[in-house]
Amino acid sequence: MRKFLITTGLIAGLAVAGSAHAKIATGSTVSDMTVTDSNGKTHNLSDFAGKRVVLEWTNEGCPYVKKHYGTNNMQDTQKMATADGDTVWLSVISSAPGQQGYKTGEEANAHVAETGAAPTAVILDPSGDAGRKFSAKTTPHMFIIDEAQTLVYQGAIDDNRSASPSTVAGAKNYVKAALADMDAGQAVAKSDTAPYGCSVKYGS
To answer: What is the DSSP letter of 173?
Structure first.
């Protein structure tokens, strides 16, 4: 098995969930962990050395996720990020079996096709191991790892915390802004923001 390296260091049911792990500090390096995608393939972050990696925690049933997919904001961000071939986008589903958002590989692939999403891969994390390691709290919750495998951004996708699709227009997209800073050879100006959305539906 290959190993994926990860960083260490009000509507009912939408409250931010707690985590068994402390929040990872921006600037952290990496340690070993195996993850499997919706096609049954395992991945290792070292396979992407020299590339950026964007991690997006997602849950199809979450109104905040629907906000970004229903307006094509998430799809547009995915396509922008990966257009030059230098960025890998991994959508991560940490919903446990029986919980909102849980998907089999076949269901995840069908959802990608249905929404026109453009992740490099969909990571299935029903155990919640990857989510807890990252201290992923919400859907969406975004992380960016640079070419040197250093965490350079974590938090919300944008600065408007409403679930209303109408609020996407005019919001500052933190992921696009962080990638633009990196393209310019600059440190990410806004590297740590508070995530918003539905709680990740971890198992007990």
So the answer is: B
Buried b (16+ CB within 10 A) or exposed e, 169-187: eebebbbbbbbebbeeeee
- Report which residue type is found at 31: S
Looking at residue 191, which CATH number applies to its domain?
A: 3.40.30.10
Full domain range(s) for residue 82:
4-196
pLDDT band at 18 (very low <50, low <70, confident <90, very high): very low
Whether 124 contacts 58, CB under 8 Å: no
Rounded CA-CA distance 161/184 in Å is 28
- Residue type at 183 in one-letter notation: D
Instruction: Identify whether 202 is part of a domain.
Output: no
Q: Is the pLDDT of residue 19 over 80?
A: no
pTM value > 0.70: yes
In a domain, 33, yes or no: yes
